[in-house]
Amino acid sequence: MTDIPVPAATRPAEPVDARVPLRRLVPLAVQHVLAMIAAPVSTVFLVAGTLRMPPGATASLLSAVLLLCGAGALLQSLGVWRIGGRLPFVMLPGGAATALFLQIAQEHGAPTATGSVLLAAALLLAVLPLYTRVVRLFPPLVMGVTVLLIGIAMIRVAARLVTGPDGTGEPRAVLLAALTVAATLAAYVLLRGVWRQTSVLIGMAAGTVVAVTTGLGSFAPAAGDGFALPAFLPFGPPRFDLVAALPLLVFSLTTLAEITGQTVLNSETAGRTPVPERDVPRVARADALVSLAGGLFGTSLMVTSAENIGIGRLTGVRSRFVTAGAGVLLVVVGLATPVSRALAGIPEAVVGGSSLVVYAVIAVMGVEMLRRADLSGPGTGSLTAALALTMGLLPLLSPQLYAGFPDWARTILGSGVVAGTLTAVLLTALLGRSGPGRAGPRSRLPSPRRQPRS
Asked: Per-residue pLDDT tens for 96-115?
């Protein structure tokens, strides 16, 4: 008997495309928002504290970030033409990208940092036709070096939120930051599920309460009423400097390896057969376009996040319409004036304590990536990692080392992330081909299953 083909309209929807009733969709979407809200909030306060932004500007930046997170979740979940993976993704400001944004802002000014974001997003769009070639440049060894150096550099930046620009901290500020870290740790250890995933946010709330009740700090929400609308070009017209933008340009290329891993993992979790050559460019296009918008509103690069994939596994709900619902909620929260203006009053030492936790975790992610690289045996992986980390740490340990060099060389070599990443890429390409016991760095794509987002 000949099988009769089932019309496409009558085929059962895949789990990722299944519609969820509104009464179930709302609580599931709220759960996704709770799982990711700490990242945009802590990122905004790290930027605001480092750049000494007033409360009103902080509230406006928080509104912009939450709106972009919501728009990104909608774009990735629903997809438009070849933009967005149509997978249950949410979008966040990248922690590592924010670190590089702040580094550029401190060394060259915020307008140059804004221009660097626009250049990096444009570069990501431009290289997508060469995706399979570019992604091979960033195996786990290179990614591990990059993320570890970013985490180390940002721990120093976060510490300055506690100590102040001169590096001399008041005892009460240090104590408040330590209590914030302790509260974050307690929440992570004692709580479970979604509440554990919001431990950073809980730590910030606890630190703020301690500051107000003990006098260690003050809580001063931003003044104003009406909608906390994002400010267009809050740092002024962007300045474009290719040399100054190198840290973010290099990072935008490394994200292709991470996007590959996230897309494959999310496809498998959602019950869809992974097709990286089709889906990864779509996810990357959405990342790049939302990042372009973010650059115009004062943020760094926006990235898709794997934080919410675990919720899909835990609940068994794989529908992309749930994360689309989360996107709608994020847009609403971004426009909620009382929320953004109240959050803008969190004490700086509390933000510093929370940021220390966030960026220490990024450094550990780099260590985990290096563990997956081939650093043992007769190969040259350990030597490559050692020399790359040395080049990356030298500017941090000896800031005046390249003071006598030309400006362009000082910008490249003086950025630990750029110097370390370029060293890792070059040595992997050179030694990987000629070193003993190595198959070469271009033999295959990096394993996509366990690439964390930085």
From this structure: 788 889 989 988 999 999 99
Distance CA 118, CA 21 (A): 39
Output helix, strand, coil percentages for the chain, rounded to the nearest 5. 70, 0, 30
User: Would residue 10 count as lying in a domain?
Assistant: no
Count H helices and E strands in the chain, helices first. Answer: 19, 2
CA dihedral sign of residues 445, 306, 123, 75: positive
CA 97 to CA 347: how far, in whole Å? 24
Conformation bin of residue 405: beta by default, left when phi > 0, alpha when psi is -120 to 50: beta
> Which distant-in-sequence residues (6+ apart) come within 8 Å of 326 by Cβ?
29, 30, 32, 33, 36, 70, 73, 90, 308
Q: What is the residue range of 119's domain?
A: 20-434
Q: DSSP 3-state assignment of 93?
A: strand
> How many domains, in total, are found in the chain?
1
d(CA 299, CA 282): 22
Q: At 189, phi and psi to the nearest 5?
A: -80, -40
Digit-coded pLDDT (tens) for 195-238:
776 677 788 888 889 998 888 887 777 665 556 678 899 999 99
Tokens representing residue 362 in the block: 């990024």
- Tell me whether residue 452 is in a domain: no
Question: Is 216 in contact with 176 (CB distance < 8 Å)?
Answer: yes
Residues pairing with 80 in the sheet:
83
Contact 256, 139 (CB under 8 A): no
454 in any annotated domain: no
Least confident of 216-230, 273-287, 401-415: 216-230
Contact 423, 417 (CB under 8 A): no
Q: Which of 117-121, 189-193, 263-267, 398-402 has the highest mean pLDDT?
A: 117-121
- Distance between CA atoms of residues 360 and 357, nearest Å: 5
Residue 440's pLDDT is 40
Rg over CA atoms, the chain: 22
DSSP letter for 275, please: -
374-397 mean pLDDT: 83
User: Taking Cα atoms as reference points, which of 139, 363, 136, 124 lies closest to residue 250?
Assistant: 124
* Residue 90 forms part of a structural domain: yes
> For the whole model, what pTM was predicted?
0.69
- d(Cα 99, Cα 300) in Å, to the nearest integer? 9
pLDDT tens per residue across span 110-163? 999 999 999 999 999 999 998 878 777 778 888 788 878 877 877 877 787 788
